[in-house]
Amino acid sequence: MEVIESKSGKIGAEIRGLDINGLADDAPELGMIRSLIYKNKLVVLRDQELDEQKYVAFARKLGRPQVYFQPQYHHPDHPEIFVSSNVPDQNGNKIGVSGTGKYWHTDCAFEKNPLSFTSVYPLIFPKMSRETSYIDMVTVLENLPADLRQYVDDKIYIHAGQLRYKVQASDIDKSLAELLDRINSEVPPVEHPAVIQHPVTGEFSLYISSGFTTKIAGLTHEENQRALTALFDFIERPEHVHTHYWEEGDLIIWDNRSVIHKASGVKPGETSKMYRVGIYDDLPFYVGIGN
Ligand SMILES: [Fe+2]
């Protein structure tokens, strides 16, 4: 087994020569993988051969697999697997949802207790755009200019997922107002501090994203527009973006406390199918949450 950690403060670590299928429940490699996720924020396990059962079994060894709150994303036989796919199953039926997460976000930021780790294992790659992009929000916070820092220190931000809701077949004949009412009652907007402290590393990161963050509490609409536009422009600068180009057999796991991410779009006529399993480490999402 070989572990290659990115140099000079960049995110990412790569593990080669480790077959995760063979790991015992208390294998020391699991602790090593967890430590690398916290320290390097993003871990690539190369050359993995997983089916649905093996994937879920591995996720259980690493933590507590999430069952996503919207069942239309579930794999029909394994609710822990969130399916992002535009490929029908062997009977021609739709499986999962296509085109997920093509905007900067962290998974489940709109929940009171957001998801700790996200793992992704692609099965069918599009020929073009085989990448997922990440931004290290610890570094972004460290580099935040003073004029933007005033919008962040001691501020509470509001996060909501309703505008990212993907309409499904059962929504037909519902008005947009009805849909928004239902989504708002299922997943009401939540508040999190703009700056969160990691429960393991102690690092501070900026916990906002243009995908799910809608407001800074206490500002007027105009002030919000100005501040959020300036913050997102800074965060999403090309020099902050780390891009992972997928290879067959890659399993990626990242820490949603420290990075935001964005999926690439699939070009018309191309096929794409990937499995995702969210994993809770069951530590507080940030220091002080729930106090
Ligand atoms: Fe995501």
UniProtKB/TrEMBL annotation:
Matches recorded under Pfam families: TauD (PF02668)
Record bears the keyword Calcium: no
TauD/TfdA-like domain residues: 9-277
An example molecular function term from Gene Ontology annotations: metal ion binding
Record keywords: Dioxygenase, Iron, Metal-binding, Oxidoreductase
Gene3D superfamilies: Clavaminate synthase-like (3.60.130.10)
Family in the record: Belongs to the TfdA dioxygenase family.
Name of the molecule in the record: Taurine catabolism dioxygenase
Species annotation: Methylomonas koyamae
